[in-house]
Write a structure and sequence with these properties.
heterodimer, A: about 500 residues, mainly alpha, two-stranded antiparallel sheet, about 0% strand, globular, B: about 160 residues, 5 helices, flat
Chain lengths: ~500, ~160
Amino acid sequence: MLEGILTGLSTALSLTNIFMVSTGVLSGTLIGMLPGLGPISAIALMIPITYGFDSASGMILMAGVYYGAIFGGSTSSILINAPGVAGTVATAFDGYPLAKQGKAGKALAVAAYSSFFGGTIGAVFLLLGAPLLARFSTSFQSADYFALMLMGLVAVSVFTPKGQFLKAISMTIIGLMLSTVGMDNVTGTQRFTFGQLNLFDGISFLLLAMATFALSEALIITLGSQHDNYQAFLTSDLHNLKVSKKELKEIAPTIGRSSVLGFLIGVLPGAGATIASFLAYGMEQAFSFGNTKVKFGDGNLKGLAAPETANNAASTGSFVPLLTLGIPGSGTTAIMLGALISYGVQPGPQLYTESPEVFWSVIISMYLGNVVLLILNLPLIPYIARLISLPQRFLIPFILFFSLIGVYLVSFNTFDIYMMVGFATIAISLRFLEFPMAPMLIGFVLGNLLEDNLRRSLLISNGKLEFLWERPITLAIFSITIIILTFPLYRFIRSKLQTKNNL
Amino acid sequence: MSKNRFGAVVIFGFSIAYGMIALHFPVPPAFNDSASPSSFPISLSAAGIIVSMLIFLLPATSAATTPELTSKGILRVFLLLLLMIFYGFVIKIFGFFVSTILFLSIGFSIMGERKLKVIFLTATVTTIIFWVSLTQFLKIYLDSGSLSKFVFGLLNLD
């Protein structure tokens, strides 16, 4: 293990790779900060740029983009109350009031410190937890994998906001359906290709991610009215990034609690950063027992530190199932999985046993991203933040151009551009019908793996469904899946009973 | 019809069509039913049908918010979608350089920029920066388009 860590360190700390991670963090922050664009879009937009790089550099750049984009999302939450992703919604609760009071610089600094410590504590847990789980998971068979992936897909849908469960499940199914397009791996049969040569290899992951996130997010911004929350940002003091010792002391216990909570929630498939940040916020409110100088929601520093710490710790935690089992627990880790696969790195238990140096360099580069974020990004933030005021009339065509050219430069096939326009149109319509997009992306990423493992299990058990309960591990995972599934049912019945009581 | 129900009908229809196509996949004789290429898609189609029916039948409790639609917004999105198709169409003919300048200039004007000088300068300068970084730093080959090849071909008649 130590040897692996040292190899990982020496790879990550070369001059080129430090340059890579810095570039990644900066560009991630820039993209993540644009209102409406989240980390998924940021990573998708950066993947084509890294195609020519070797896998280590590509991964390190992506780690930077990942952390940068999350921090960029917090920045737009704090400055203009426009969270790019659900994971930073809770950040705006106390962050935006601080900015309105003219303390935007302080709010950003607290957010950066909290993210850093959340990420650091998360990374330590990852360092300890991932090898354990990786060793355990080498005994998994295809039936267990099938069960695990099913659990992941169900969990992702269950932990969506209230009333979205069935819609999320339906989008997961659509994602799985899209993954079956192309030539079947086992029999060589053409499925859903309609004789189109362009579809024989299936739909490209990057294309789908760009069309349903970057493109459709940019177009949705065009549809709606513009943000008018720039007042706080323009009048606030961005350059004063000082946080006093007293304030640091005040938020230290919050950071400790929230990072443990965040990491544990992040490890669970499906839960991820959003739930972690809300729970941490709720936990801090409960711990304060109502006797705080500044009320929660009026610019309380603990209220800002808690969700920021938790969402970063959870983002790190979500790498545990990704690296050890190869199963992404959220839309963001799904696209990281897509990026890793494009560099020839297939996360899973084999990664730890067969190429430990890659395993460790991923973990160490993730951490490096975190460090660079603090020392490079924070001092630059007053200048980077000016980008938020870039007029939409220039911004939108640029985002569309980046998305299109990013996909086109991989294939040099104009059919891809037409397909992107088609997917983007469908994605906008579905977003309007309030159907979530992230479950679709996760379904798409897991589709082929899920089908392969199902087929293998069926072949082994002679086509019978017995494999579902034959092994204790499979049975246990299935039982957990069923328990998770009852959660929305419970929520539904409880809300029914509540409305009945109110009548 | 509510948003939920409309979405449910769309997914229901999609799942039926998807399942119908999957039913007709040829199955190679060496493979038994469980591992046939159509079994996974058929079960997905069944799942899609069941879930969309549940969405249709169960009462909706939605709290998500989407931006308000304005006719100006819809028109802009429609024009931008057309512009992207146009970009796919011209990039093979005019090549990266000219098509990107066209794409960005038209894009800026669709989004409401009126100053021609600003439009043209921004589009050209960014295209040059991109072209240089793609071809010189990332070493990506960019096609100059069939039109320029044709024109240069005519000039070089020897």
